[in-house]
Amino acid sequence: MRNQVLVVLAIATALAQPSDAVDIGVVESHCVVDVTARSSTGQLLLSESRCYSTFAEAMFDASAGSLALPPPTQSDVLEGDKEFAAEVLSLILGIHFDGANGSGSSITITGSGCNGGWWNTGASWANRISSSYNGCARLAHYDFPNKGGSVESTYGVGTTDNLGLLNNRAESVAYHSG
What we know:
Elements: H1 2-16, E1 30-38, E2 44-46, E3 50-52, H2 55-62, H3 77-80, H4 82-89, E4 92-97, E5 106-110, E6 115-120, H5 122-125, E7 131-134, E8 138-144, E9 148-155, E10 160-162, E11 172-176
């Protein structure tokens, strides 16, 4: 019996150790949704998400094919390429990232009208946003759906800002012109 226990422990220990041969990384996803309407309460009604493995593919979709970037292009192109950023800004309300400084997975909200309409994140993005790229002058991130609870805003069209208090806590975002 004692030898059987030692064998079981040895197998369990070996299985619990990470393998150098297998890199278990986080797979990024870059999704795009379009504003299709606005409810009487101001909530933005959105299309189904269309998701891609690269940021470049998501930007190609968000621009209806006018922004063709090489596949390794990351979100830092928003800060480094002013011409590209200007084109993106004409199409979006905001891009939200699950990593700091515009890194990690993203969801792009396409549309116009920075007039206070808001998006409820839904289960797939609830408590996940760490940074946002502003397509509007101010993005107000709320702790709860329907603009409830605490609020933290990011400011400046064409800038990417990290969330502090509401890092990984936002469940709705409103888009404002000022």
